[in-house]
Amino acid sequence: MNDIAISARGLAKRYTLGTAEQHDSLRDLITGGVRSIFRRKRDQGETTFWALQDATFDIRRGENVGIIGLNGAGKSTLLKTLSRIIEPTRGSATVHGRVGALLEVGTGFHWELSGRENVYLYGSILGMRKQEIERKFDAIVEFAEIGKFIDTPVKRYSSGMYVRLAFSVAAQLEPEILLLDEVLSVGDVAFQRKCMDYAKSLQRSDSTILFVSHNMFTIKTMCTRAIYLKKGRVEFDGAIDKGIEIYERDCRLTSAGAAEGSSDSWPIVINECTLTDDRGTVKTVFEHGEAMTVRLKYETREPLDNPNFIVAFIRSDEVAACNFSTEADGIVTGRVHGAGEIEFRTPPLKLVSEMYKVVVLVREKGFQKILCAQIGTTFHIRHPLYDTHFGVFHEPAQWTKAAAS
Asked: Rounded to 5 degrees, what are φ and ψ at 157?
């Protein structure tokens, strides 16, 4: 058992909604006490919510595991439980090794203190001694790239500066086990790549990494194993490709969050979104420069006049790469009622090599109210050279070299 870094047995966490409950930290206890002064007395029955249920798994030393799932699946709760930030309602977890956890932007930072003071505060929270922090202080500041702001109160920092400083402190902890929760989605691309390079250096030193992210491209790059959570339960634990396949399948046609109300109240919904090549073959991997046909099947619950169908391609780092619109392209959809299909063919796609999700929106004529917004599916663009270093897309330019005068 010496090669086991993390062992979880029946981990479960229950929250009570709308009423007072046991507090997980001193901060929660104080906050709860203040709120109780203003809270009216309620005697209705409690509503409980299981954020995590019966999670059982072993993670070996040196493994790099992606914790994936839709929003609300229990990913953050799992990492907070493993890092001892919260106590489980049931079950147990044993962690062998020095843990570095970066779970939320600015976790452990004090709003009024300077960056310098917060390095010492956060470092001590992570288990570093004062002498160790002093020895590594210059390296922390250099990695964070915020030298001239180190004595500025962190309340004036951007979210990106928060993350850079917090990650830098955690990195200098030299953890044997690193827990990362979506923090690399904040900040500029250059720093994200720097953090990824650091994580890969930990991989080479046989450290164990648990990584929560909705960026499947990054998950696939970093991890060899996936734990897929669904409604608080471990739905799948195994090979990374299979885990991502299950995740992407469950993502299809879920709400993209832009339309008002629940999907049950929308006047139109998308029931199917398929991507095919020029031969009509359904695909999820397209070559750079290849055209794509997008076919949507929809169903309306009431007649709609000239709805505007919009399809957007969103890169895995949430950069909106491009979109297509019936109204913008001069297509009159007319009166739409009942079930139907609509499709279009893209020009040759010059997007860089990455993973993209297809977001489908239907708006009222004139780009007015959003009638539905759903994640249709995902696809990959493949090219041996053109990746995100080249931006969003790449096309060859016309070059002219003149002789020196």
From this structure: -80, 150
Query: Mutual orientation of helices 115-125 and 159-172 as an angle, nearest 10°?
Result: 50
Segment 183-210 mean pLDDT: 75
pLDDT greater than 60 at residue 26: no
Calculate ∠ Cα 69-248-383, nearest 5°: 125
Instruction: Delimit the domains of the chain by residue range.
Output: 4-35+46-247, 252-390
- Which bin fits 117, alpha (ψ -120 to 50), beta or left (φ > 0)? alpha
DSSP state of 125: H
pLDDT at 27: 46
- Give the CATH class of 252-390: mainly beta
First to last CA, the chain: 74
Q: Give ∠ CA 216-373-309 in degrees, rounded to 5.
A: 110
Cα 92 from chain centroid (whole Å): 27
- Which superfamily, per CATH, for 4-35+46-247? P-loop containing nucleotide triphosphate hydrolases (3.40.50.300)
4-17 and 47-60 beta bridge pairing:
antiparallel
Lowest mean pLDDT among 21-35, 96-110, 253-267: 21-35
Q: Which pLDDT score, from 0 to 100, does residue 107 have?
A: 61
> Pairing state of beta strands 47-60 and 320-325?
unpaired
SS3 153: strand
Q: Averaged over 54-74, what is the pLDDT?
A: 92
pLDDT at 138 over 90: yes
Task: Compute the mean pLDDT over every residue in the chain, rounded to the nearest whole number.
Answer: 85
Q: Which residue has the higher pLDDT, 253 or 153?
A: 153
Residue 213 and residue 197: Cα distance in Å, rounded?
16
Residues 6+ apart with CB under 8 A from 355: 215, 216, 217, 315, 316, 378, 379, 380
Q: What would the pLDDT profile of 208-236 be if each residue is shown by its tens digit?
A: 999 988 777 778 888 999 999 999 999 99
Place of tokens 């090549």: 277
User: Could you tell me the sign of the dihedral formed by the alpha carbons of 354, 231, 80, 7, in that order?
Assistant: negative
